[in-house]
Amino acid sequence: MVICPDCGKEVKEAKFCSNCGALLPEIEEVVETKVVEEPAGEVVDVSAEEETVEEEKFEVVKKSKFCTNCGTEVDLDTVFCPQCGFKFAQEEKPQTKFCQSCGKKINFNAEICPHCGVRVANVTRYEEKNVLLSAILSFLFPGLGHLYLGLNKKGVSFIIAYIVSAILIILLIGIVLVIIVWIWALIDTIKSTEAINKGEFVEDKLF
User: Fold this and answer.
1) Does residue 185 contact residue 142 with C-beta atoms inside 8 Å?
2) Can you tell me whether residue 10 is helix, strand or coil?
């Protein structure tokens, strides 16, 4: 066993530390001998290294894994391969996570935060959207901002409503409807963008 110069932990003699992956200093092997007196009075030199090998044969076999880089067999909880320094991937899944709205620690599988009520399930599938860009698109033509946000049903509904309102301008009543649809789509686009960026669930329907 040797002491790692980087992390200070005692590890097995190897090229790299199995805990932090640091290069270990080379140590010359020293074979200790001891004298054992037999009843007949004969003196026999027994190598301490040979006794260690015999004792290891009777140790309980532990679970192990093999390094994917060099093929060396290591303990299951080894982080760095002691032979080549390869870092093993950690496959343990987290048990908790933090709510993106209130910052409280909650269960990793929770769909709704029990502290603030914000939906947290599948939030990572939404990428952050640009509020200014979505507002500009909705300003140019109602519905385009919603299409940018991925709210296709809402976007199509606003586009159809705006076109119908524009056609009804002939009957004069369409002027009022065009303004209402335009303002409604603009405000809804901004609110939907802010909600998505907060990780909240936004329904893709007009009513």
Assistant:
1) yes
2) strand
Run of H or E including 34: strand 33-37
* Whether 135 contacts 145, CB under 8 Å: yes
151: three-class secondary structure by DSSP: coil
Query: Taking Cα atoms as reference points, which of 119, 189, 115, 131 lies closest to residue 159?
Result: 189
More confidently predicted of 27 and 192:
192
Spell out the long-range contacts of 139-144 with Cβ–Cβ below 8 A and sequence spacing 24 or more. Answer: 139/186, 142/181, 142/182, 142/184, 142/185, 142/186, 143/185
- What are the tens digits of pLDDT across the range 126-144? 467 898 999 999 999 999 9
Structure tokens given for 56: 């290891």
- Amino acid occupying residue 102: C
How far apart, in whole angstroms, are the C-alpha atoms of residue 199 and residue 192?
A: 11
**115-126 pLDDT per residue, tens:** 887 777 654 444
Helix segments in 12-130, DSSP class H: 48-56
**SS3 (DSSP) at 13:** coil
**What distance in Å separates the CA atoms of residue 41 and residue 36, rounded to the nearest whole number?**
10
In angstroms, rounded to a whole number, what is the distance separating the alpha carbons of residues 204 and 4? 57
DSSP 3: E
Decide: helix, strand or coil at residue 149.
helix
What token pair was written down for 95? Answer: 């048990």
